[in-house]
Structure prediction request, 936 residues.
Amino acid sequence: MKHSISVTVNGVTHEASVDARTLLVDFLRDHLHLTGTHVGCDTSQCGACTIHIDGASVKACNMFAVQADGATIKTIEGRASNGTLQPLQESFKEEHGLHCGFCTPGMIMSAADLLQHNPNPSESEIRHALEGNFCRCTGYHNIVKAIQSAAQKM
Amino acid sequence: MGYIGSAVKRVEDKRFLTGKGQYTDDIVLPNMTHAVIVRSPHAHATIKSIDASAALAHPGVVAVFTGQDMVDDGIASLPNGWAIGEDQNEPPHYPLAPDRARHVGDGVAVVIAEDKATAMDAAEKVVVDYEVLPSVTSSEVAIAPGAPLVHDDAPNNTSFLWELGEKAATDEAFEKAHHVTTLEFVNQRLVANAIEPRSAIGDYNPYRDDLTLYTSSQNPHLIRLLMCAFVMGLPEHKVRVVSPDVGGGFGSKIFHYPEEVICAWTTRKLGRPVKWTAQRSESFLTDCHGRDHISKAEMAFDANGKMLGLRVKTLANLGAYLSTFSCAVPTYLYGTLLAGQYTTPNIYVHVTGVLTNTTPVDAYRGAGRPEATYLVERLVDLAAHEMDMDPAELRRKNFIPPDAFPYDTPVALQYDSGNYERALDKALEMIDYTKLREQQRKALLDGKLIGIGFSCFIEACGIAPSKVVGLLGARAGLYESASIRVHPTGKVQVFTGSHSHGQGHETTFAQIVATELGLDLGDVEVVHGDTGQIPFGMGTYGSRSLAVGGSAIVKALDKIKAKARKIAAHKLEAAEDDLEFTDGNFIVKGTDRSVAFGDIALTAYVPHDYPEGVEPGLEENGFYDPVNFTYPFGTHISVVEIDRETGKVDLLRYVCVDDVGNVINPMIVDGQMHGGIAQGIGQALYEGAHYDEDGQFITGSFMDYNFPKADALINFETDRTVTPCPHNPLGVKGAGEAGAIAATACVANAVMDALYHRGVKDLPMPLTPERVWKALNSNGHA
Ligand code: FES
Ligand code: FES
Prediction:
């Protein structure tokens, strides 16, 4: 049975009909073609799928699309306007906080959430906040630096 | 200088930072179907029958195929890319097992449906009648008499026996030894865990009779070659392989995988695109694993601590099938590195390649060289403790001196250059070694366990001189190609056979070309990962992209510059020899007459006033085949503290001095070090893949397989020395693997350094709190 949902994603409202079992991340990727939100695991651990729902970071693989009915969602595609990077994104570039880029959208979304709540995090607070975002490329060193430098700029 | 040597920010970052990267699973093709593979739940089982009727009846299912269907259609075994001796046993590896599943996760059938969820549902309805067979997962057990045979035609489950070095001379050295240090240890099985799961899409166009395969590979040209020539018998010119953005590889995406063939074959059967994307649990079961050695190693010393000999016996677990480069890893990328940085005059190594009912094992970051480094550096470290010498000084005493290069080791390599002492001294200074030892002593008085670990490592990379590897059994050349297209407006495209899956080639390679041609970085675009655009390529692994791929770019650049010079000489009415090329201008020496590179490009395409006998256009190919490996080296030092109550190991400092030769982009080189070090630390402290006695893989998810997260790591202190590679045009050596090669031994040594005084000689990795705690609480008898 299909369910009708209405979600606002990056400022655009979408009416859609989805299966009860469709994961929110699959809805974003397959129905809305927002493929910046990635899938890195099937146990809700890697954080590659991190998005914001009503302002808070959420793992989009850990939620059904129907549960997002009525929600306001922001994905990585909603961050830069007209291709101009936001300070956080700019810092990731400046500090070389990404290699393959696969974890990056989720990292940025988690880091943005952290900075919202804690505008001046310590190194250890950053490292703890990223526990649920796996990166196999960078060793996290430059990701931590990027978030520190973004905090200073913002 | 231009852009070379400067920390240019990466041009590829913008698309990744905005969610606009395009990984294979992001690609959607019209009319695309989705494949899910039915995998064996058993480690070893005969496939008695497969009943797909219920799956086929499931609404939305397009087709179900079995391994036998593929064999019947002429699909052959995936090839082994490197033969170890003429009598090597090379059992077949069909993309889907036709008659017998040989490891948990071995594919037996594929279900194709209109969408992935449907394919998953239907896959559960495929009824496979298995007869479970006895299985074996440990290499030690597999070669014992009476062990179940993974392949009936591979007696003793042995694929090859391999040896290197002089056995008699080495045995003799041991007889004369004053001291012998011995270790028996496991270099545990690891899972690479690139965060992007593997994915492939086959797209057959029946009207043009051509096939495009998108695949998350480090190696698109080689995949095309292997798939066309060996597995499917397809004409190569009708097949295009595209590896778009790839989310990390670390070796695990080098190899030709079954799913590539499955997608390529089924799209031809169905006339519709077929996409397969691994779930993480499938990645754990089917991405090739790494390491898995069981070794006994002994090092002989004279009374002054000079190394006399090294004797090694290793069982290398190859898994159920021979993956593409699996056989080269525990042999030519391992045994040849056992001299390390030292003048050990006699080395003998014997390796048995063993087949087991496990996921195939192949290259994982470092591939053979971390295993060699761990072995040598653990032995040296333990020896220093046993002989009551300072571990840094014991190493220094045995270093190959800087004036001894080129240096022939007893294990077949010729090291081209090096200055090991300089790197060691720099690292000692960075960590303030004397003071640190003092602090360690004081801390112990306060009951605190601090350990200091070293790793003075060497690697052979820039893989590889084709002639040499050909003699050693490689079934491919290991050169690289590049093509440079200068457009009429002077903008440049560089087509490289190297593949970037995080390494930043789009930036580093552009830095080289922009500098050489005197262009803005933005005027150069680097294209990679598409056999349809790039003449040829051998892909990215073995820290080869810059040393080999970058050198191929230089070759092509040389040709571009030579032709441009001819055109410039004509335009300036001067002799070619009278021209100098600086900052993008050809200048008649000693005059102010010049012509810009952009004008020459335009002239090449609008050749109205043009030199006699020169072809229009400005586009050149270059192939580069290295004359030797490159030999990055360095010293890594780590400091750890062990919590006495829990056994938990905390990293306090990690210092490294690496010598990767000339550096094009220091920011990227440091980044590669960070990532490699993190993976090396992972092996030392956290990671390990395990099978239970029934051959079930019990570390098959991120919940069960622990690799380091942000809160488990610290900031790394990186520095370098520069000893340029003497034999490639850029003087570069490669930086992708050094961190992973050095760090495991470095951190393991640090932990042991904190425990030696308790009578603990060695502990198995990963050095988990449980293991360390037990060692601390066993009254010195670990
Ligand atoms: S895909 Fe959501 S946490 Fe891994
Ligand atoms: S940049 Fe590759 S996983 Fe983080």
